[in-house]
Structures are given as structure tokens and as C-alpha cells.
Amino acid sequence: MADRSLTETLSEWNDLQKGNEGLQQVFQKYLDDLQTTSYKQSEISSNIARQHRHLADLAKSLKYLSLVLGNLNVTLFSKQAKFSYKVEYENFKLYLTCTCFLLTLALRLWNSYKTIDTLLNFLLVWYYCTLTIRESILVLNGSRIKGWWVTHHYISTFLTGVMLTWPDSIMYQKFRLQYLDFCIYLSLVQFLQYYYQSGSLYRLRALGQRRSLDITVEGFQSWMWRGLTFLLPVLFFGHFWQLYNAITLYEMACECGWQEWQVPVQSFTYLLLFVGNFSTTLRVLLQKLREKRQKIS
Questions:
Q1: Cα–Cα distance between 219 and 189 in angstroms, integer?
Q2: pLDDT in tens, 49-67
Q3: Given this model, what pLDDT does residue 219 score?
Q4: φ and ψ at residue 182, rounded to 5 degrees
């Protein structure tokens, strides 16, 4: 009887040992899985944090892209979306023109530091770059922007970029005030054109004579003939000021022995702008005069 009890006890003990070994194996597997899970959790948390940083950087980039392109898809499908983007484009031009005018006026009256001049030139480079991008989107969506006025903004981008790289030398200071005066006049002309052209475009669109994506420009076009011819003297004065800048810079280049490359490059660029602006405006003017004479005869 005692031997039987001992045998049963030993058997139960062996069973318990086997069960305990099984539990130890399960526990060890649990510890291994827990360690693997903790490692994976740390790796995933690190990836999530990295993605959050990437999304934050992307959000900043999208804010800048939205500032450049406006709040839109590149392809606009509805007439309302196209017109809204055109209005946003016009407002962008107006706000930046006012900003450049105030900054240039402040530089002209109270400041002579090259560092602040650089800020103005950088703003102008960004402004003209943004205009070319937005105008390309308008053309893609059906706007009939005249070829020269788009090219004019590309040339202006290059010109302001060259001005941005011009070091603070004697030649720079010699041309600085003339350049700032020209920028002030240009801002006033652009504001004047925006004010009158936008009103004229609104009236012509209401009469069905202009399209919804027609925009204000820095020059003179055929649709401005009625009511906006008073702008012609202002425009021609600005064109000849560009020629004056070209001549001044050429004389400065000869004076400094062509040592600063920015001087002759800007001289040629101003001459190119004068030729393009003057010839385009004159061609439109002569065309309208011929049409007027034909109607009379």
C-alpha cells in the first residue's frame, strides 16, 4: 500500500516537472516575443516620428507652393475656378506691387545699406518668378496673354537676379538712386494700370467683349484703346527711362573698364526691355490708328 502511494506520488511529481518545464518554455517564448515586440514597437515609433517630421517639412513646402501657385489645381475645369484664380493672380500682383513700392520708398528716403537693398532685389526676383509660373498656369487654362508680356517677366527675373548679385561697389552706389527712383515709378505705373485696366476689363466682360481669363498687363493692348489712351504717355515715359538706364549703365561700364560684369549685362537687358516694350506698344498703337482710319474712310 505504501509502495503504491509512493509510486503514485513519484508519478505525479514527474507529471508536475514535465508541466513546469512546459510552462518555462512557454514563459521563455513569451519573453522572447515580448523583447521582439518591444524592438518592433521602438522601430515603428521611430518611423512614425520620422514620418511626422517629413509631413511637417512637406506642409511647409506646400505652404510656399500655395503662395507661389495660389490655391488651385494646375488644370482648372470650371469657369468659376478659372475666374477665381485669375482674381487671385490680380490680387497677388496688387499686394506685391504695394509692398515693393513701400519698401523701395523707405530705401530711397531713409536707408543706404546694401543688405536691405538685397532684400528688395530678392523680393523682386521672387515676385517675377512667381508671375511667370502663375501666367503659365493661366495660359494652360485658356488665357490669351500676349507673348511679349510673358517674355518680359522672364527678362525682368533675370535682370533683378543680376542686380541681386551686384556687390556694394562705387559703381553700384552710383546707379543705386536712379534704380530706386525707377522702381518707385514702375510701381506707381503698375498700380495705375491695375486700377484702370481692372475696371475696363470688368466692363468689357459684362458686355461680352472680353474673356474671363484676360488679365491686366504692364503694357498697352488693343482692348485698352477706348478710355485708357491717357496711359500711353505714362507708359512711353517708363519705356524711355529703361533706355536711359541702359545708356547710364553703358557709360558706367566704359568708366570702370568693364571690370564689373553686372554693369554691361544690365545695360543690355534694359535695352532689350526698352526695345520689346516700346515696339510692342507702338505696334498696338499704329494698328489701332490704321483701323480707325479704315472705319472713317
A1: 10
A2: 777 776 666 556 555 555 5
A3: 45
A4: -65, -40
How many whole angstroms from its chain centre is CA 235? 26
Please provide the DSSP assignment of 233-275 as one string: HHHHHHHHHHHHHHHHHHHHHHHTTT-STHHHHHHHHHHHHHH
* Start-end of H helices in 70-78: none
Cell of residue 224, nine digits: 485698352
- Residue 248's nearest CA partner among 234, 268, 233 is 268
Residue 185 pLDDT level (bands cut at 50, 70, 90): very high
Q: What residue has cell string 505525479?
A: 12
Max CA pair span of the chain: 143
CB atoms within 10 A of CB 283: 13
Q: What length does the chain have? A: 297
Between 71 and 231, name the one with better pLDDT. 231
- Report which DSSP code applies to 230: G
Half-sphere exposure of 32 (CA within 13 A, CB side): 6
Q: Which of 10, 12, 57 is nearest to 49 (CA)?
A: 57
66-90 pLDDT per residue, tens:
555 555 555 555 667 766 777 777 7
Buried b (16+ CB within 10 A) or exposed e, 108-130: beeeeeeeebeebbebbbebbbb
Q: Which three cell numbers stand for residue 287?
A: 494698328
Which of the listed ranges 87-101, 127-141, 201-215, 233-247 does the model predict with the highest average pLDDT? Answer: 233-247
Distances (CA, A) of 265 to 83, 122, 227, 273: 38, 18, 38, 12
